[in-house]
Amino acid sequence: MPEIPMTATELVAAINELCSEYARASVARALSQHAGDAEEHAHHLRHAEHWLGKANTRWTEVVASVEATVVDTVDIEAFRPVRPLPNGQVEIHACDHNARPLVMRFTGAEAFAVGAHLTAYAAIGLDRAGQRVESGLPHLPATTPTLHPASASTDSTNPTSRADPPPHTPHTP
């Protein structure tokens, strides 16, 4: 059994060899049934057992490689391409050009930097395409919000926490 899983090319080659060895064993067994005498029959049976032994060994290697590569259980969860992890990292799920799943893990700071860069590149791309970036942004008021007088503290012992503004005192030179 291999300790390190086979590469995809090695696995396909091992499966092809397994099929070839099993086919040779099947042919030898079929030839033994059509043998003209006992000696030829025994000869073909020995070949069938030889190829079947090789196929069994190859089968064990292929199964071990597949078991080392493929996860036994898969948890089904809602589609979440970006997921915060309990250890402070951020996990991003994507697919490569061959539709193979890809998982990237970033620290919080790295994820923040990647997000900022993606946002900036998206804004540049939209601008170059002639689309207005601000149409996709939330509306911000023109002035900063002020504290409503009713929500201010009315502690009468502290003169700086009055609800009313201080009276206007003109400056006299």
Structure description:
The protein has a three-stranded antiparallel beta sheet with strand order 1-2-3. It is mainly alpha-helical and 173 residues long. The radius of gyration is 37 Å and the shape is rod-shaped. Among the domains are: 8-69; 82-134, no CATH class. Helix 1 (8-33) runs antiparallel to helix 2. Helix content is 46%, strand content 9%.
Strand content: 5-15%
CA-to-CA gap between the ends?
97 Å
Q: How many beta strands in the DSSP annotation?
A: 3
> What is the element string, with H for helices and E for strands?
HHEEEH
Oligomer: single chain
Query: Per the principal axes of the C-alpha atoms, what is the gross shape?
Result: rod-shaped
Helix percent reads 40-55%
Structural class of the secondary structure composition? mainly alpha
Low-confidence stretches: none
Q: Estimate the mean pLDDT confidence.
A: 78
Order of strands in the sheet with the most strands? Answer: 1-2-3
The count of helical stretches stands at 3
The radius of gyration over CA amounts to 37 Å
Largest sheet: 3 strands, antiparallel
Summarize the structure.
By secondary structure, the chain is mainly alpha-helical. Helix content is 46%, strand content 9%.
